[in-house]
């Protein structure tokens, strides 16, 4: 094993030990550790900040390191999904295998953070920014705070790290999730013909939304046809002989590039008119498309540019006007599941890529 990869694995092992499970973990502790590491690479500016989150979640944080006058930013989110059941060992202890390492966040996407730290340890960063941020997996409240603070105003291009299998993501769907709550007096089911029925209203709205999704299956262009309409959950406090006092419906859609999320959101709200529903938009994220693919072809010579099946915070940077692509080690098929892993080969290649990018002048990067 070469020294560069061994350094990457050392950083990854340390990162996995931090419990950054979104909503319950300690993301600021991981960010503080990353700030210490980044400080050893002599950035011209180091910004560390905490950001409060809604819906009762604990604070998250970010660290931004700046060298020179950056035209390029590398971004990695440091939070993970919950570990769930099915792990064969402690998910926060990295395990090494012959061709892979296993641990929570190894693939999505602490592996990329380790690659960048390893690359920084072996070269001198020039006109570059590195951003490690939390709260991507559920809510994405940190990136808007970073953008609104003006930290990215001078940045022209970004590489947002996600597990793309070492390929370059140039486009993906948006994301919309809405919760609808219904209330009524409740009662014995023998009075069902007379008493307001919250669960029935939730089911009727779900049916309307499902029909809307069916009617829009040809919206968009390949490979993004349709809205990916999902009725995620309908629940109540009722039973077969109890009329519920409340019911909740969770729905989501993933609009294709070219379809505004606000258009779909308005359609859902219109469908709920007259149903006494309390609506709450949980997330409303636009689709993503790289503003100028040609700009990045020098960075990624010989690497395929692909469409992605999942949403990323590249959409937020692109909407802000930053030319953005998505890239990272690992395959999405290995993420968000027990025994999450990333291959040593993917980590090695990503480390080499970041070493080249970090050590290059801005004029050289586009001609790599």
From TrEMBL:
<dbReference type="GO" id="GO:0006526">
    <property type="term" value="P:L-arginine biosynthetic process"/>
</dbReference>
<dbReference type="Pfam" id="PF01546">
    <property type="entry name" value="Peptidase_M20"/>
</dbReference>
<dbReference type="Pfam" id="PF07687">
    <property type="entry name" value="M20_dimer"/>
</dbReference>
<dbReference type="GO" id="GO:0046872">
    <property type="term" value="F:metal ion binding"/>
</dbReference>
<keyword id="KW-0479">Metal-binding</keyword>
<dbReference type="InterPro" id="IPR050072">
    <property type="entry name" value="Peptidase_M20A"/>
</dbReference>
<dbReference type="InterPro" id="IPR002933">
    <property type="entry name" value="Peptidase_M20"/>
</dbReference>
<keyword id="KW-0170">Cobalt</keyword>
<keyword id="KW-0378">Hydrolase</keyword>
<dbReference type="GO" id="GO:0008777">
    <property type="term" value="F:acetylornithine deacetylase activity"/>
</dbReference>
<protein>
    <submittedName>
        <fullName>N-acetylcitrulline deacetylase</fullName>
    </submittedName>
</protein>
<dbReference type="InterPro" id="IPR036264">
    <property type="entry name" value="Bact_exopeptidase_dim_dom"/>
</dbReference>
<feature type="domain" description="Peptidase M20 dimerisation">
    <location>
        <begin position="172"/>
        <end position="272"/>
    </location>
</feature>
<dbReference type="InterPro" id="IPR011650">
    <property type="entry name" value="Peptidase_M20_dimer"/>
</dbReference>
């Amino acid at each position: 094993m070469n020294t560069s990869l061994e350094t990457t694995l050392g950083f990854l092992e340390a990162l996995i030990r931090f419990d950054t499970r979104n909503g319950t973990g300690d993301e600021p502790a991981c960010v503080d550790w990353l700030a210490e590491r980044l400080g050893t690479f002599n950035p011209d500016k180091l910004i560390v900040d905490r950001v409060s989150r809604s819906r009762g979640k604990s604070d998250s944080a970010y660290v931004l390191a700046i060298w020179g006058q950056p035209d390029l930013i590398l971004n990695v989110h440091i939070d993970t999904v919950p570990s769930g059941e099915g792990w064969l060992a402690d998910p926060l202890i990295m395990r090494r295998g012959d061709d892979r390492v296993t641990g929570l966040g190894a693939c999505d996407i602490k592996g990329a953070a380790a690659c960048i730290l390893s690359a920084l340890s072996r070269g001198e960063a020039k006109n570059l920014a590195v951003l490690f941020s939390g709260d991507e997996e559920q809510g994405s409240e940190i990136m808007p705070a970073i953008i609104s603070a003006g930290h990215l105003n001078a940045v022209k291009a970004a590489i947002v790290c996600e597990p793309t299998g070492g390929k370059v993501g140039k486009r993906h769907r948006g994301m919309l999730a809405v919760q609808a709550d219904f209330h009524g007096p409740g009662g014995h089911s023998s009075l069902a013909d007379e008493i307001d029925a919250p669960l029935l209203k939730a089911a009727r709205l779900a049916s309307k939304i499902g029909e809307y999704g069916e009617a829009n299956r040809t919206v968009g262009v390949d490979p993004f046809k349709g809205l990916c309409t999902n009725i995620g959950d309908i629940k109540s406090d009722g039973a077969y002989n109890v009329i519920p006092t409340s019911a909740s419906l969770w729905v989501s859609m993933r609009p294709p590039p070219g379809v505004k999320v606000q258009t779909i959101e308005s359609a859902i709200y219109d469908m709920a008119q007259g149903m006494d529903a309390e609506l709450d938009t949980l997330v409303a994220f636009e689709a993503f498309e790289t503003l100028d693919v040609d700009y990045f072809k020098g960075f990624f010579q010989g690497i395929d540019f692909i469409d992605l099946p999942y949403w990323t915070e590249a959409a937020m940077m692109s909407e802000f006007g930053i030319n953005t692509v998505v890239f990272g080690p690992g395959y999405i098929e290995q993420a968000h599941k027990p025994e999450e892993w990333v291959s040593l080969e993917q980590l090695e290649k990503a480390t080499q890529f970041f070493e080249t990018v970090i050590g290059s002048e801005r004029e050289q990067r586009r001609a790599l």
